User: Fold these one by one.
Assistant:
Number 1:
Amino acid sequence: MANACTHLDEARVFDTDKDYCDECIRSGSRWVHLRMCLICGHVGCCDSSPNRHASRHFRDTGHRLVRSIEPGERWIWCYADEVVAGEVPS
């Protein structure tokens, strides 16, 4: 299996009721989709959003695993390995 993520053991799956990006709210910006950090629970906007706060969180903290918190999506992305690393367990 090529390009497998080597960081999944760092994931701590957090549930969240948050449906917004704090940074976008503070700056009056809009977002497209939301991503949640599986290390600390930070919720930020995706790379299709103008400010890309989830990616910025990775660059600032080194927290490499995020999940989509869009309805019906369960995938996990690893920024370090640049791969879909798996799915959030049911």
Number 2:
Amino acid sequence: MRGLPYTTSLEDELQALWQGLKIALEHNSHLYKSESDSEQVLRMLNKGNLHYNSIIFECKSLMEQLENPALGHNFRELNRVADLLAKEGADMKLFDRTEILTAPPVFVNKAL
């Protein structure tokens, strides 16, 4: 995923969802469920938000193309792997490219 060095955490969450949906569509994956630890993002997808309507619309469009996967909330404490990956990406300053992992890196094995 592309790093976003000058954004809010809410923008990061929306961008991550958009990128994940886009990757699933590009790889012809059948996505049954997508989870976020941001209840605010889930609310915005249902009710909209004037400031973020553009990316919300794009996410909804991708979801329709993916046959409307369920959206769920995942508590941040249970999402340790995603947290470790995000921190590693930020530490490595991977802000200019997308990384698709085919296997979990060694440093997340204990969290699995």
Number 3:
Amino acid sequence: MSIAPSKLLFLLTGVVCITEFLNNSLFLFPFYSSDPKCGQKFHETKPWSYFNLFTRIVGGNQVKRGSHPWQVSLKRRQKHFCGGTLVSAQWVVTAAHCILDRNLLQYLKVTAGEHDLRIRENGEQTLPVKYVIKHPNFDPRRPMNYDVALLKLDGAFNFSASVLPACLPDPGEKFEAGYICTACGWGRLNENGILPQVLYEVNLPILNSKECSRALSTLKKPIQDDTIICAGFPDGGKDACQGDSGGPLLCRRRHGAWTLAGVISWGMGCARGWVNNEKKQHYRRGSPGIFTDLSAVLSWIQENMSTAFCSTPDGKLPNSEGELRFPGSPEHFYQNHQLCVWTLFVPEGNYILLRFSHFDIEPETFCDYDSLSVYSKDDRLVGKFCGRDLPLPILIGSNSVRLKFVSDNKDYGTGFSMTYRALRWHMDSGCESLAVLFEEGVLQSMHYPEHYSNLAGCQWIFFFYLKLTYQSFEVEENEDCSYDAVTVYEDVGKEEEIAKSCGFALPAPVLSSSGMMLIVFHSDETETFGGFRATISFVHVTGNRSNLGVCHFEAARRALQTWDLKCQCCFAFWTLASRFLNISLQNFILEALLCCVESTVLRATVQGNFVACCHHIRICVHGLIILHN
């Protein structure tokens, strides 16, 4: 593990937006236990702080015993040669290039709880390996892609303060460019240097795919990057090195759980910079640290682990309707260390409605312990559920859905019972259920154009950059829209509200800027009206110049006619993560003292063109509007 000092050329910052969940029941019944779960250190009492990661980025360091209880040492005849990561009591993830020797299995042992290789410490546990599963696409002649393997242990580790599993990523979970993650191992402290005897770690920023590809293109041989992620600093100085292979690249989720994002695979030298590679001789060129991307091979990992871990039959359920009970009876408790995956199919052209009749899964605020996760056809996370309250019925906007149940090493419940059936799409299908949709189309309130019902509750979720355009709108009016209203959010946790509408004037179109939109319609117990009808259209992100036209001209004209001079217009802009935004405002006439531009990076009176130093921005213009031609 190289920890050579280095000048810090840049500091990438980023925040991963972990998908929040779809049901308020997720946030009830917080569960406290003295026994830690995946990705949680036994004695870790300090709350997670993103700033804490930056205070250590200047250099790698030797870690305290128990700092990485998921780190294991692969040993051949009692000698360490590669690292690995414990992901359950019986499974280890490592690099495929570490276990190429056909005769290795008879000598291979895995030690957990290891810190100092020179001595046997209290808490160390060693087990032989029952069998090895290399990824079928791994090619030893081109070992950069699919460099991942699973080790099934002959026995099971007992979890303790020094032996715990790391979390696997959720399908679709990505740690964005700039996120600071941690690599650890017993590798060399510098290129051709000595091997340390104690565990080291180094913090590295994730690179975006464009910069990763650019760096790899300067090496002598072209390299495919289907399953890799890059991390490191362009001027070098920090990296993994020989002896670290197979070990973890760990990223910490927002709420604190350490997640296995990558497997240490390879690099050109150790901690070499790659900024001026073209000017260097080939043998002196450097590269970022290369890691196998766990999210790219996650389905393969789950498929191979689930065959040994599900106590009831799982697999494909290809009927138009049916029932799923786990673990078989509501009176029975599910077992620990379960991983079960079911795939539901209904005829093409239909959607799937899931309806729960029983639900009892160990509660935790973020459902990181035991959970039932629901994924759409393209492996997009629809929701992650735990607790004791029944989730809302869920209408999935595709003809297949995947369910994944996981349980950890302690505490359990009686599982869940649910029915599923095929449904044809109706425009008001989000009422009395949560509709998760993936297509453009029309939305409307229940019974439209007749009056909607009292105490209505409708929710639609779209996972795309999109535009909501109202065609008709009649919703009970009051000053703060607290009676009946259509509310639009940019997150499923209902924290990022971008529009709330009631009354009889047609609301302005609404643009999402987060890649998802939640639309909620509710009514109270008194008056009802004709409701609303709206279209959903996808906005394609190209990174090219875009002309947005006049700022909701008709909405402004109606506002003036009613002497309601307050108007707000929101536009979303985005481009590639490596680019800047240059926004040009033309024919822009507003009362200067009252109108300003708000964004994630600036607040200023509009005078003309400006440049925003980010790749994602929402501009909200509000104030007194002066109409212009």
